[in-house]
Amino acid sequence: MKHLLDTHDLSIDDIVKIFDVTDRMAEVNRRQVPKVPALKGKTIATVFFEDSTRTRLSFETAAKRLSAEVMTFLASSSSVNKGESLRDTIETLSAMGVDAFVVRHKSSGVPAQLTQWTNASVINAGDGWHQHPTQGLLDAYTISREFNQRESLKGRTIAIVGDIKHSRVARSDIDLFTRLGAKVVIVAPPTLLPSHVETWPVEVRHTIDDVIDNVDVLYLLRMQLERMQAAAIPQLSDYTKSYALTPERAAALQSHAIVMHPGPMNRGVEITVDPADVPGSRILAQVTNGVSIRMAVLFTLLGGDSVLVGGES
Amino acid sequence: MTDSGVVVLGADDVSRAISRIAHEIIERNPVLDSLVIVGMQTGGTWIAQKLCDLVNERQNSVEVPLGAIDISMYRDDYSLRPVVLSAPSDIPCDLTKRTVVLVDDVLFTGRTVRAALEALNDYGRPQAVQLAVMVDRGHRELPIRPDYVGKNLPTHASDEVTVGPDGITVKVAAE
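^ Those are the sequences you sent over. The predicted structure of the assembly is below.
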C-alpha cells in the first residue's frame, strides 16, 4: 500500500491489519514515554488548504510519536496567497524531501491528483464531500474494540444522524461499517440526504426517535451551520427537536450503546446533553484512537514492505 | 540428518539448560526484589516464562514479575527486510532502578538486542540489564555479549537455527 485516498481501496484484510497495528500503537501511547523510533529519518508534510486544527494536530502528534520529522503547510499563511499553483506547491515541497503528504482540501479528488505530481505517499485527510479515510478507520476501530469484535462489526446496528449529504465522514464511515458487517441506519431530514441514497447499503429514517432505543452505536454528525444559509433546514431549533441527542433521548439508549461524534461539537444543536453525563460517550476515546490509527497508517505506508502479523493479543 | 536439519540438543537438554540459567540468575542476583524477567517477542517469551516460573519456585522472598517486549518498531533495518509486527509489548512495571533479565532464543548479530535495549529504556531507566539466551551462535555485528547462555553453537552465517521446547536444530543452507 502506497497511498490512503479512499476507504474503498482497503480490503477487509487491510482494515483488520491496520487495526492490529493500531493496537500496538495504542500500547505505545499508554507508555510513560509515548514515542518509538519507527519512522526516524522520514519527513511528513501536513498540507491543509482548508482549516482543521484537530485533524492536523492528530496527524502531527502521530508522526512525532513515530519519530518522523514534521513539516506544516497552511494555505492561509503561505505562498498560495501569492498565486502559487497547487502543483507548484507540491513539487516544491517534494523537492525538499518529503516521504508522505497529508492533504486536506475543499475539493474532492485533490489528494488523488497529487499522486501524479510526487513520488511520496499521499494520505487523504479530507477532500470535499468525498472521503476522510482516517476518520472512518478510527470510528470503525473504536466500535470494533468497544464490542471486542476484532475482525468485523457483525450484528451491530449503527445510526448515523445529521447532514449525510455534505459529510465525507459519513461516506467513509458507511463504507467501512457496512463492509465490516454492521447494519447502518441514516437519520436525516430529506434535504440533507444525498441524491441516490436508495443505492446506498443503508436504511433511512427521518427522526432520531425511530432508532434511539435499538442502536448499539449512535453516531452524531456535526451540523454545519453554514448549511443554514443554504436553506437546507428552516431553523436550527427544528433540527434540534427531531435530530439532537437530548437528556431524555440519552436516557432511552440501551445500556451498552455508545455515542460518537467526529468533533468539533455544536453544543445545543446536535447535542444538548453534556457528553460527560452520558456514560456511553466515546467522543474523547475517538480522539485518542485517532492518534493511534494515524500512527498505524503512517507506519503501514512508510515502514517498508510491511508484512504485518497479527499477535495473540 | 533430515530436511528439517540436525538436532543439536534434545528436549531434556533444553529443559536442563533453562534450569541451569534460572540457578545462575538467582546466584548472580542475591537481592531479587528489583528483578524483572522480560522475554523478547516472540521467540524469547516461552523461555522467559519458564525462567520466571523456576526462579519463583526456588525462592519465596518475592514474586519476580514477567514481561514481554516487542522490538519491531525499533529495528534499524526497515529498508532491508519486511517489518514483522509480533505480539505487543507487555511490561508489568516501571523499569526505573530495576534489574532486567532480557531473554531471547538465539543471539546472532546482536541487532535485535540493541533494539530491545532501546525499547526497554522507554519503560523507565533500568539499574542494569542482563542478557539470557538459549543459543549463542556467534557472528556478532555489535559489541553485545550474553550473561547467561544455554548453548554455545558455532554456525555459518547462512545456517538456520531453530529453538523450541522440543530441542534445538541447525539447518544448513542449500548450496
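Strands of chain B lie at 6-10, 35-40, 66-69, 84-85, 99-107, 128-136, 148-152, 160-164, 167-171. Chain B touches chain A at residues 41-42, 70, 72-74, 78-79, 81-89, 94, 118-119, 121-124 (CB under 8 Å).

Shout if you want it in another format.
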